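Example: mitochondrial processing peptidase.
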Amino acid sequence: MASRRLALNLGQGLKVPRAGLSLPPLRRGLATPVASPALKTQSTTLKNGLTVASHYSPYAQTSTVGVWIDAGSRAETEETNGTAHFLEHLAFKGTAKRTQHQLELEIENLGAHLNAYTSRENTVYFAKSLNDDVPQCVDILADILQNSKLEESAIERERDVILRESEEVEKQLEEVVFDHLHATAFQQQALGRTILGPRQNIQEITRTELSNYIKNNYTADRMVLVGAGGIPHDQLVELAEKNFTSLPASSPQTGAYLQSKKRTDFIGSDVRIRDDTIPTANVAIAVEGVSWHDDDYFTALVAQAIVGNYDKALGNAPHQGSKLSGLVHKNDLANSFMSFSTSYSDTGLWGIYLVTDQLTRVDDLIHFALREWSRLSINVTQAEVERAKAQLKASILLSLDGTTAVAEDIGRQIITTGARLSPGEIERIIDNITEKDVMDFANRKLWDQDIAISAVGSVEDVFDYARIRADMSRNI
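Written out as structure tokens, the predicted fold is:
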């Protein structure tokens, strides 16, 4: 009955010709492109130095707006290490205009999401909401950045929260290994410190230090207001002029500021924390990598993709693409490995993170990983470069799914390089990378270069530094 009723309804809407009459031939018109008001990232700088950047999508129903600040744990001193992360926790605990309850209720009533995070070089506060609620979200962001009360009672409550968070981080082996990798590679320098800071600092940070960090770093010349989604650029500029014009124009030239802008030196060294209660050896090895704006940035990512990743627990473990993963799986050398290329404003770390429970064969694992690095300097095939490029392009494009991801990409690129490369521009750069480029990169950055090593767990059989360093110039 339903099918018959549907057929009758459809028939009522059709004009059926009488017998003997012919219909004019159907003609399809030419398709015309929809003119979008903005297909690229727009940027405006206000009089006080604040940058406003946005990517407008006219058909998006939601928007992400946020403030990216060129200040993280790198802008701290040894005595104040942990301050930036502490401030992130206090941002939502009340302002001069809103109590913590009012702030939470306002966000809840909008159905919006408000969040923040701290890295070694950046602090980010952002909100995602319906387009109509963007002005209110920008007002909230401006309020928590400029008018946080930093009450003593809130500071004491968050102190305990951060100490518990620190304990949780210390249980995550990957986090521990990479924190130690930074500490040994960038010894006695700001980039080598952790984001949360040592427990003693967390226990002793005062309201004065928190206020000074805001005064010294939350300035217009080090901030970018970013919008992505259904918020037009002109509207975002108006909101910035309404809410952020009272920001100080520039940062004071304090000792911490000057240190944060000083070129970081990479130091070949190692750190080992033996704990035989941990059933695996967890080892990270890295050379000095590239900065965000280095000409080799994308070549480093392609080289990283050639080395690849591996996880024995996955069903496709024997077929994960890279030569190293095939060798590791065939000989059962590792539980997993992950190649990485981490970039900062003036340096980076390019390397591999190895996890294995084959404790008597950990040296074999390290040897074959470094032999693969040496091979990149000598013999790279076109096929594996094309595979790596395809994986890299897919990874970059998939990571830009959603307004928050786009806002993150805009904020990170503009705060570090001053401009944003579009996905299309990035794709063209990657397409132009050849096997010769990869081998040239490996010759300059990998072959016979100093390394930093961080090893945690059952690492008794990890060979000494000099032996591992000698593998960096091996003829295949």
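Residues 1-24, 28-38 have pLDDT under 50 and may be disordered.
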